[in-house]
Amino acid sequence: MNDTHLPSEGLGSTRPSRRTVLRALAYTGAGAAFGTSLIGCSAGSGGTGAADVAKGPGPGGYALDLGGYQGPVPRTSQMTLRVLRADTSPPVNDWYAKAFAAFHAAFPNIKIAEERVPFGSLQQKVQVYIQSGDAPDIMMGRTDLTAYYGAGKLAVPLGPYLTADFVRKQRASVVDGASVNGDLLVMPWEDGIPMVVFNLDLFAKAKVDPPAELTPRQVTSGWTVDDFLATLGRLKEGLARSGDQSLFALEASTLGNGGPGSNYGGFEGHFIRMMGDPQAAKTSDEYRTWAAVDEAGRKASGYLDSNGAIQGMRNYQKLFQDGLTPKGAVPKQFAGGQAAMGWEAIALINRYTGSPADKLKFEWGATVVPRGTTFFGCNQAEAPFVWTGSKNQAEAVALLAFLCNDKNRVGYHTVRGSVPARDDIIPSLPVYAGKAQQLGLAAAKHFVGAPKTAGWSDYSTAANSAIRNIALGADVATTLHETATKVDGLLKKYR
Amino acid sequence: MLVKHETGAIRTAVPAARARRRRRTARSAQSVVLSVVAFLFAFPILWMFTSAFKGTKAVVEDAFPLTWKSFVPAHPTMANLARLFTDLHFGRDFVNTLIVSVAQVALTLVVATLAGYAFGRLRFRGRDVLFAATLLGAFVPVEAMVIPMYGVAKHLGLLSTYPGIFLPFAFSPFAIYLMRQSFRSLPDETFEAAKLDGAGILRTFWHVGLPGVIPALASLVLIQFINSWSNFFWPLIAMQDPAKQVAQVTMAGYADNANTPLYGEIFAASTLLTVPLVFLALGLQRYYVAGMASSGLK
C-alpha cells in the first residue's frame, strides 16, 4: 500500500487537491442531473428521469408485450401509478389484479395503486379528483364524455404513444367516439351495442308475429320505430287477451338504473336521435335533431326541442301512456319472462348464451334496434384516459396499452362479457359466433353515433329529468322547450 | 254512598263501565293504529332481512308481480352470506367501518364534552361569538366543503387513512351544542359548592359536570355512531385504499359484469350492517330520551 502511495505523493502537481475533488464531484453531479433531465424530457413525461431499462423480449423491445405502445421506454425511477375505476364482479377484479401484477413484475419500479368505487359514484369521484387537482394517473371514463375531457384539457392525447396499426385495428365508430378533432383522448376499450331481444313464447301467447329474422347483410332494412311501436301495441292487446295482466310488452329499461329518465345516453336518447340525420344540411331540422346542441356546443334551443326531437319523445311517451312498459324501475323483466321484448346491451345477451346460470327458460330471438330517419346506435362505453396532470404519462399509457394487448383483450372480454372495441379478436371469443351477436356486430358497422359536445354531462342530466317528466305525462313540446332553455344556461360556462 | 242509594249506584256504575269499555276500545284502536304504523316502518327492514336469504336471481324474478314469494324466500339460502365473507371481503370492510365509527364516537365525546362545558359553564371573552361560529359549521353541507376538505386531508397526509375518514367529523357543531345545553341544564348550586370547596375547572368538570350529563353522552354516542356508521360520501372520496374502505362504500359496488347490482349480497350486507345499530339503539334508548330532554332539544 505504501509503495503505491509514495510515487503519487512525490508528484505533487498531479495529486488532486481537496478543491479539485469537490469541483469534479460538482461537475459530475451537474452533468448527471443534466443528462437525467434530458432523458426525462425525451420521455415526454415529466418527473424525475432515470436510465432506460434494458431492451426486453416484448414487441418493440419493451420488457413486456405493450401491445400498440410506441412511446418512450418506461423509466426505472420509483413511481406509483394510480388507477381509478368502477368496481365490478370478482372475476373482472381478479383479471385487473393479475394484469397489474404482471406489469409490476416486468417493471418492478412501477407500483400500481388501484382504487375501486361503486359504478354509480365513479363520475362523481372523477369530478372531485379533477377539481381538487389531485387525480389518479388513469381514470375510467366514458366515450360520450370525450368532448368534455377535451374541452377541459383533462385527457392526454394518446395518438403519439400508439402505433397507427393499433389505432387502425379499433372499430371506427369507437375511435370516432374516443376522439376530439382527431386527437384520441380515451383508450378504445369496449363497445356498447344495443339490440332488441324478444320472447318467442310470449309472442306466441299473444298471437303476434315476431320480428322478421335478419341476416347480417340486412341489418339496415330492419324495422322502423313505427313498426316497433305497432308490434308493442299488438303485443299488449294479445297479452291482455291471454288473461295474464302481469305481463308487459316491453321491459323497463335495463340500460342504466332503470326507469324513465335514468339513461338518456344508452336508451332514451335513441328515440330523439333516430329522428335526426347528421348528413342533412346543418340548418335542417333533421341535423338539429341529431346534434341536440349547436355546432359550438353552446346552445340547445332549436336543437333539443326541434320538430324531430318532439316527435321522438312523443314516440317515447307512447310507451308509458299506452301501458307498453312500466313507469318505474323493474329489474330484469325480460329475463324473468315478464316482458315480451327488451332493449338490451349485447353484453347482457352474451350471458343468455354464454352463462349456464343465466340461460333463459324460454325460446327467444334478437334483432336490431328500430330505425327512424337514421339507424342510430350508441357510442357510449367505458373507456380509460390518462390525466393531463399525471407526472407519469408515458408509463400510464404503457400500462393501458399493455391491458389492450391481444392476450389481455381476449382475457378481459371473456370475463367481462362486453363487446371488444376491435373486430380482429372477435374470433377468439366463442360467444360472438352466436347468431344474435353476429347480427349486433354487423349492425354496429352501420350505426350512426351520437354527436360529441363539451356540455354533454350538463345536457344529459337536464335531458334525463325532462324525459322522466315526459314519461309520466308532461307535455312533450313544452317540456323540451323549457329544458332547451335551461340547457342554454348550463352551457354558458363553455362560451 | 253507593250502598245507601243502590239504584243510583247502579246508575253511576253503568256509565263507569261504559267509560271503561270506551277506554278499552280506544286503547285497542290506538294499539292497532300504532301496530300498523310500526309495521309500516319496520316493513322495509323486514323485507331486507328476508331478501338477504334469497339469491339475486330470485330477488329480481320474484319482485314483480308481487306475490308472497316477493317477500318470503321460497328457497332460503345462506349463499349470499357465505359469498360476503369469501369473494367480497365483507369481514375486512365491516371491521374498517367499526374502527372508523368507534374512533369517531370516542373523539367526538372528548371534543364535544370539553367544548360544551366551556361554552355552557365557563365565562370568557368572545364565548358567544365563538359558539355562534361553531354553529355555522352545522349549516354547510359536506358536499359543499368536499373539495377544500380533500385538499386539507391531502396536505395533512390523511388520505387513505382511518383518521382521514373520522377526524373531519370529530368536531361536530351539533354534538357541541347538545353538550352545551346539557351542561347548562345542571343546577348552578353544585358548581358553586365545588368552587367553594376549592375544586379547579378540570376537577369540577370531571366530578360535577360530567356525571350530570351521562344521558346526553349516551344520546351523543348513539347519534354519532349512526352518523359515522351510515357515512358514505366522505369515505368514498377520502379513502383510496380498497383494503381500508368501509363496508358502506364497498357494498354499493357489489355488481355483476353488466354492472347490475348483486341484490342478494347487498341485502345480506345491509342486514349485517344493521345489527350493531339495533343493539346500540336497544341498549341506549332509555338514555336517549332523557339526554335529549335534559338538553332542551326534545
Task: Give me the secondary-structure topology.
The complex is a heterodimer of chains A (495) and B (298).
Chain A: H1 2-10, H2 18-43, E1 79-86, H3 90-106, E2 110-117, H4 122-132, E3 138-142, H5 146-151, H6 164-169, H7 172-177, E4 179-180, E5 183-184, E6 190-191, E7 194-199, H8 200-206, H9 225-241, E8 248-250, H10 264-273, H11 285-291, H12 307-321, E9 339-345, H13 346-354, E10 364-367, E11 382-386, H14 393-403, H15 406-416, E12 419-420, H16 435-444, H17 456-471, H18 476-490
Parallel strand pairs in A: 1-2, 1-3, 8-9
Antiparallel strand pairs in A: 3-11, 4-5, 6-12, 7-9, 7-10
Helix pairs in contact in A: 3-15, 8-9, 10-12, 17-18
Chain B: H1 6-51, H2 56-61, H3 68-71, H4 79-86, H5 90-121, H6 127-136, H7 142-155, H8 162-170, H9 173-185, H10 188-196, H11 201-212, H12 214-229, H13 233-238, H14 247-250, H15 263-294
Instruction: List unreliable stretches of 5+ residues of chain B.
Output: none
- What portion of residues of chain A is helical? 40-55%
Structural class of chain A: alpha/beta
Strand percent estimate of chain A: 5-15%
Tell me the number of helical segments of chain B per DSSP (H or I, 4 or more residues long). Answer: 15
Keywords (chain A): Signal, Transport
Pfam family, one (chain A): SBP_bac_1
InterPro entries (chain A): Bact_solute-bd_prot1 (IPR050490), SBP (IPR006059), TAT_signal (IPR006311)
Subcellular location (chain A): Cell envelope
What does this structure look like?
Chain A: Keywords: Signal, Transport. Chain A: Its main location: other. Chain A: This is Extracellular solute-binding protein. Chain A: Belongs to the bacterial solute-binding protein 1 family. The complex is a heterodimer of chains A (495) and B (298). Chain A is an alpha/beta fold and 495 residues long. In chain A, 42% of the residues lie in helices and 11% in strands. Chain A contains 18 helices and 12 strands. Chain A has a 4-stranded mixed β-sheet. A 4-stranded mixed β-sheet of chain A has the order 8-9-7-10. In chain A, α8 crosses α9, α10 (264-273) packs across α12 and α17 runs antiparallel to α18 (476-490). The longest helix of chain A has 26 residues, at 18-43. Chain A is globular. Mean pLDDT of chain A is 84; it is low at 1-16, 18-22 and 24-51. Chain B has 298 residues and is mainly alpha-helical. Helix content of chain B is 74%, strand content 0%. Chain B has helices at 6-51, 56-61, 68-71, 79-86, 90-121, 127-136, 142-155, 162-170, 173-185, 188-196, 201-212, 214-229, 233-238, 247-250, 263-294. The longest helix of chain B has 46 residues, at 6-51. The radius of gyration of chain B is 27 Å and the shape is flat. The two termini of chain B are 46 Å apart. The mean pLDDT of chain B is 88. The chains are: A alpha/beta (495), B mainly alpha (298). The A-B interface holds A 82, 86-92, 113-121, 124-125, 128, 131-132, 134, 246, 254, 326, 330-333, 335-336, 338, 345, 347-348, 351, 357, 415-418 and B 57, 60-61, 63-65, 87-88, 146-147, 150-151, 154, 236-237, 240-242, 249-250, 252-260, 263.
